[in-house]
Amino acid sequence: MKRILHVTGTMNRAGAETMLMNIYREIDRKKYQFDFVVFTSVKSDFEDEIKSLGGKIYVINEKNAIKRFLKLRKLLSDHKEYQVVHCHTNFSNAFHLLSARLAKVKKRIAHSHNTTDKSRNVFVSFFYHKIAKAFINGLSTHYVSCGKEASKLLFYKNKSVLVIPNSVDVYKLADYGESSKNYINNLFNLTNEQLKIIQVGRLQPEKNHLFSIEIAKELRESNVDFRMFFLGVGLLESKLKEKVKEYGLEKIVSFLGIREDVPQFMGGADIMLLPSFYEGFPVVLVESQAVGVPSLISNMISSEVDLGSKTIHFEEIKDSYIWSEKIKEIVALPETDKKERIESIVEKGFDIKTNAKSLIEFYNLN
């Protein structure tokens, strides 16, 4: 059995981690196993499932980058069975790849999951990114990304990059689009006449939930009968709840935390919002297109995310009133055809079975 070590930081229900788990569930685990390095002692959302599938989780609970680097190097030096290390932590990949290089790991893979990185101020970012990118390209033996735009963020033009789209079980999700029409209605005692809006993702600045709350305010002022649901947790939860309270939207906007029934919520929603400032290739948009729920999303997100499902609608994140009006237009459109959606998504390479096979073949390359 070949064991592959993934350096992820966390294994929570976020885009990159969800994609990784989708692949993990599909591989032949008698021949290959995935293990994970996380940088927090807080239990990960996927921890129990990982262990049930035979995987291991190594915790390096260090905020200091140097201490983290040293502990990862020691881990890899002590566990020579890991000859493939796959890093998923954006520009921080540089530190982890150096640990792997010094531990003499043969195959060191850098994976780019985002199209931009705004985690630091502009001045610091410019120099940090330049240096980190040089290290990543110098220390990696192989390169993976979720799309062409994400490749540009971390890798030089001369690098050969395997593009693994953020794949899903298309057929299973498409069925939810039919079977879960009344899911939200039944959970919250709502009617078909009430508009149901969802946003799926971490409550982090880049996801721009504050803008969604502004949209909710506009919809209420135009007397729309609706409910808005945020599925996810994050640093901004308290701030967002304060804004909801300030606007008197407590009975309209709900915070539902981490959910295992996201596909069912998609099936029961009238529209999904994603007004993000930046994204890589969000798994949630692949899922939503398979389910068939219309999505109104920021034009800061790459047009690559439109898989021909006829459910994706782009808009500038400048005016919440415009978004509120756009929502009314979109929900009035006829439903898309299930068969056509499936064919388009599969044709564009987003079927999980195909991509799981491609990644395993990639691990076996010299």
TrEMBL record:
Cite a single Pfam family from the UniProt record. Answer: Glycos_transf_1
Glycosyltransferase subfamily 4-like N-terminal domain residues are: 15-170
- One GO MF term, please? glycosyltransferase activity
Domain Glycosyl transferase family span(s) in chain numbering? 191-305
Gene3D superfamilies per the UniProt record, alphabetical = Glycogen Phosphorylase B
Question: What InterPro entries does UniProt report for this protein, alphabetically?
Answer: Glyco_trans_1 (IPR001296), Glyco_trans_4-like_N (IPR028098)
What is the protein name stated in its UniProt record? Answer: Uncharacterized protein
The major lineage groups are:
Bacteria, Pseudomonadati, Bacteroidota, Flavobacteriia, Flavobacteriales
